[in-house]
Amino acid sequence: MKHKNKIIAVANQKGGVGKTTTTVNLAVGLVQLGKKVLLIDLDPQGNATMACGADSRHLSLSSCEVLMDECEAAEAIIQGGQVDLMGANTNLTAAELQMMEYEEPQTVLKEQLKGVIEQYDYVLIDCPPSLSILTINALAAANSVLIPMQCEYYALEGLTSLLDTIERVRQTVNPALEIEGLLRTMFDGRNNLANDVAEQISEHFGSKVFTTVVPRNVKVAEAPSFGQSAIEYDHLSRGAVAYKGLASEVLRRNHG
């Protein structure tokens, strides 16, 4: 389904699969292709916030205050970088606890975003590595889910619970939620197991698997410590080139 203002949740409850890296680099890649992008950090670790060059420890307003209804979404957005950012920090854990007392805790973010969504071509949400109420909020607000995954032994196993959660969200609060695609990350083609799992993923999910494969790449790992995406840090590195390819693929899928 084509959307004028598309919200994509980047989710996988398994940690260490390149979720934040994917969110940040896809956001920058889309900006470089002429799109206006908002990145929402919904992970209390605040890694996407830091990778966008903001200090998560010193945010005056963040996704925490938005979810606790202490400010409007527009007030918590930091502009001025390539990507507009709604940052996060450890305060989000408190928001998570408070939200459990709401009548409809799953749809808080969806309601809050109504005031800003029209200003953006894409909104990307970096979810925490768990299937918590924060992730459910992202899935309830999103049009689709992008799932980064490493090609390793337990990859498909961990995917089952995420797909179950997506199905539950469809049945309860967001019937139109789609899978944007599965992205194979940190790929090492010299590893037989990685190749086998990559093949399994393709057989299992067919056209839902992105053609782009993100290789294991030192520049991608270094970039966040400089408060940058891999694309900004070294645009010719293999990782950056892959993420630029992913941005083009996402645009093609959404705009033909």
From TrEMBL:
Pfam families: AAA_31. It comes from the Bacteria. This is ParA family protein. Residues 6-179 form the AAA domain. InterPro entries: AAA_dom, DNA_Partitioning_ATPase, P-loop_NTPase. SUPFAM superfamilies: P-loop containing nucleoside triphosphate hydrolases (SSF52540). CDD domains: ParAB_family.
